[in-house]
Amino acid sequence: EIVMTQSPLSLPVTPGEPASISCRSSQSLLRSDGYNSLDWYLQKPGQSPHLLIYFASNRASGVPDRFSGSGSGTDFTLEISRVEAEDVGVYYCMQGLQNPLTFGGGTKVEIK
Amino acid sequence: EVQLVESGGGLVQPGGSLRLSCAASGFTVSTNYMNWVRQAPGKGLEWVSVIYTNGDTYYGESVKDRFTISRDNSKNTLYLQMNSLRAEDTAVYYCARDSDDSSGKFDYWGQGTLVTVSS
Hints:
heterodimer, A: mainly beta, 7-stranded mixed β-sheet, 4-stranded antiparallel β-sheet, 11 strands, 48% strand, globular, B: mainly beta
């Protein structure tokens, strides 16, 4: 099983300031076609999760461009260039490379 | 418009059974990989199971041999049969659609249904 480790667990942020979340996998998520099978999801309070980033760096439809993903292999980062109040919630990374699919433990982003 | 609507959750005693349903609209469940993901109260997300377009199924270790994923193409509905339920199965259960390229990204999620296992 591929273990996904996120940090930090909690991230207090000031609106307008940048934020960064790290995700590491116990095995490389790089596919033979050159894509990394790593997604980012946001679960806002009281809601279902929704897809933010796929293949490590591609924004899902409708996702604001202040969100960006980077990384390859085993180390990945989600960055928010300027945090807005609506960005609060828990962020999860997930590997889609092999079963069982596995999620990181989550990073709770809250406004200071 | 793609929609996923779960139902079937509720209170069940340890050792009991429950069947969850996920009614899909806006696409056909047999043409996408379909998943169940759960979230215990106050905890993170845990992948539970997947059914591929060819009918192959896979399960997380914690539910293997107790849960069964299936679909009914005529009803365009995904199911999760849960047997021998334990307290640790208490969670909100979400169905989630894998994208059209089956790349392991969940592009649509349902609203979830709560399963509580308690005596």
